[in-house]
From TrEMBL:
Coiled coil location: 389-456
Natural source organism: Sinocyclocheilus rhinocerous
Reaction equation(s) it catalyzes: ATP-independent breakage of single-stranded DNA, followed by passage and rejoining
Gene name in the database record: LOC107738550
Family statement: Belongs to the type IB topoisomerase family.
Pfam families xrefs: Topo_C_assoc (PF14370), Topoisom_I (PF01028), Topoisom_I_N (PF02919)
Name of this chain's protein: DNA topoisomerase I
Gene Ontology MF annotations: DNA binding; DNA topoisomerase type I (single strand cut, ATP-independent) activity
Subcellular location: Nucleus
SUPFAM superfamilies membership: DNA breaking-rejoining enzymes, Eukaryotic DNA topoisomerase I, dispensable insert domain, Eukaryotic DNA topoisomerase I, N-terminal DNA-binding fragment
The protein's role, per its UniProt record: Releases the supercoiling and torsional tension of DNA introduced during the DNA replication and transcription by transiently cleaving and rejoining one strand of the DNA duplex. Introduces a single-strand break via transesterification at the specific target site 5'-[CT]CCTTp site in duplex DNA. The scissile phosphodiester is attacked by the catalytic tyrosine of the enzyme, resulting in the formation of a DNA-(3'-phosphotyrosyl)-enzyme intermediate and the expulsion of a 5'-OH DNA strand. The free DNA strand then undergoes passage around the unbroken strand thus removing DNA supercoils.
Domain DNA topoisomerase I eukaryotic-type: 105-482
PROSITE patterns hit by this protein: TOPO_IB_1 (PS00176), TOPO_IB_2 (PS52038)
Length: 510
DNA sequence: GGTACGACTTAGAAGTCATGGA
DNA sequence: TCCATGACTTCTAAGTCGTACC
């Protein structure tokens, strides 16, 4: 009988799909009458079997895929544990970039003359190991040896090699959470704070120097003004043909600057347009003091587009001068100082203790953004920006509808309560009230998110947060305004700034 | 003073992962 | 549960700046 049934089934190929289809179309009866042996009971059994099969398939999938992922994860963890740490001064420290750079095509940023060159594979024979004499270091793979094993405790790197594109040295160093990097970071901000104490004096001096008899001093003073006011980088010379053509302050050329005695109702406007670090465009129109303007006109006299604007100046001269003004002062300290002081001022200006947490965070991001704009930290707008913005707007619209519906319900509940005057309807009013409150909070959050995202379209906040803003300012702000530090710094950032989180109280002033 | 080099910080993009809503 | 999305992590290029050497 069962054979017959099977054969019949085979013959007719009345599969589950068909059963299902028939059922959906209301043809169940039809089906039933056509296959007498295909009773409801049998069908249920089949259905059971089908589900079982599905479950089995799923299990197989899980058996294959989940362990695969787990295996990779475990393997990564093993590699991290074996190679990702070192011991320095008796402390186990995370290493930053412990994986060797694989071979491939060199891209470079901007219009790089070496774009597309082959980046060679690094071999054990290229590698220099730096460790203490008595330490255990990784052995070179069988049949190979390291280029050198040295014991230099004056430097912080663990491994180095020379790369084949520019012939420069690359290093493996410790993670930002390490003691050695943390102390250095702290020092950097302390130097910037020392600058704060004397910056007005330095400004007074460079203004004075704008009138110097000596060209080199005038150039130095105007360059320093740019570095201070516009947070430009120092601008070292670069070897032509080896790298993309980018400039900083001292290496600005005539072609990068235009002078407008008047523009858009402002006097003495300087228009700067040049490729900076990573070939990111710096474009700014800024009104300067008359004396600066006159000096710039002087520097431009009788020069061609390709000539240096500051022909009597380079970073070495500038930094020597700065060193005389303050121990440890260099051009980049101005960037750190101006970034951090801007954050502190903006936070003071934008936040109030009455704000709720999302509003406070929006203000923090805005303060952060002001710094990113100052430092010209840009990013390509995310590929999915338009779409995700649109999605967010849809969400906001929906939330608005929800809110007005909830308000209506509240009104109705209130009316009921007024007529009925019983406990139950009173309770209902409370519930509806809470719903309205909850939804309007959600709406506000979404709107804040939309504003934040729109304003952030082309601006990268990460770089300034990680490299320019004294973390103690943020920590103090969080403590003062009761914002959890996790809202500002993620796990990695908290590890990097552990020194600041530990030592800072709410009264810290940069 | 000029230059090459070495060590270290700063930079945006790409890759990966976690989460939350459909 | 699945997938889209954004957050986080990794990657490595590209700067700064001090020093050695001529």
């Amino acid at each position: 009988d069962s054979h017959k049934h099977k054969d019949k089934h085979k013959e007719r190929e009345h599969s589950h799909k068909e059963h299902k289809r028939d059922k959906e179309r209301g043809n169940w009866k039809n089906c039933h009458s056509e296959h007498k042996s295909c009773s409801e009971k049998k069908h249920r059994e089949k259905e059971k079997e089908r589900l079982k099969h599905k479950e089995k398939q799923k299990e197989e999938k899980v058996d294959l895929i989940v362990p695969y992922h787990r295996k990779i994860k475990e393997e990564n963890e093993r590699i991290l544990q074996e190679y990702g740490y070192c011991v320095m001064d008796n402390h186990r420290e995370r290493i930053g970039n412990f994986r060797i750079e694989p071979p491939g095509l060199f891209r470079g940023r901007g219009d790089h003359p070496k774009m597309g060159k082959l980046k060679r594979r690094i071999r054990p024979e290229d590698i220099i190991i730096n460790c203490s004499k008595d330490s255990v270091h990784p052995k070179a793979p069988p049949g190979t040896r390291w280029k050198e094993v040295r014991h230099d405790n004056k430097v912080t790197w663990l491994v180095s090699w020379t790369e084949n594109i520019q012939g420069s040295i690359k290093y493996i160093m410790l993670n930002p959470s390490s003691r050695i990097k943390g102390e250095k970071d702290w020092q950097k901000y302390e130097t910037a704070r020392r600058l704060k104490k004397i910056v007005e004096r330095i400004r007074a001096q460079y203004r004075e120097d704008w009138r110097s008899k000596e060209m080199r001093i005038r150039q130095r003073a105007v360059a320093l003004y740019f570095i201070d006011k516009l947070a430009l980088r120092a601008g070292n010379e670069k070897d032509e043909g080896e790298t993309a053509d980018t400039v900083g302050c001292c290496s600005l050329r005539v072609e990068h600057i235009r002078l407008h005695p008047q523009l858009d109702g402002q006097d003495y406007v300087v228009e700067l347009d040049f490729p900076g670090k990573d070939s990111i465009r710096y474009y700014n129109k800024v009104s300067v003091e008359k004396r600066v303007f006159k000096n710039l006109q002087l520097f431009l006299e009788n020069k061609q587009a390709k000539d240096d604007l500051f022909d009597r100046l380079n970073t070495s001269i500038l930094n020597k001068h700065l060193q005389e003004l303050m121990d440890g002062l260099t051009a980049k300290v101005f960037r750190t100082y101006n970034a951090s002081i801007t954050l502190q001022q903006q936070l003071k200006e934008l936040t109030s203790s009455d704000d709720n947490i999302p509003e406070k965070i929006l203000s923090y991001n805005r303060a952060n953004r002001a710094v990113a704009v100052l430092c010209n930290h840009q990013r390509a707008p995310p590929k999915t920006f338009e779409k995700s913005m649109h999605n967010l707007q849809t969400k906001i619209d929906e939330k608005k509808k929800q809110l007005s519906a909830a308000k209506k319900e509240l009104k109705a509940a209130k009316a009921d309560a007024k007529t009925l005057r019983d406990e139950k309807s009173k309770k209902a009013v409370e519930t509806k009230k809470k719903a309205v409150q909850r939804i309007s909070e959600q709406l506000m959050k979404l709107e804040v998110q939309a504003t934040d995202r729109e304003e952030n379209k082309q601006i990268a906040l990460g770089t300034s947060k990680l490299n320019y803003l004294d973390p103690r300012i943020s920590v103090a702000w969080c403590k003062k305004l009761g914002v959890p530090i996790e809202k500002i710094y993620n796990k990695t950032q908290r590890e990097k700034f552990a020194w600041a989180i530990d030592m800072t109280d709410e009264d810290f002033e940069f």
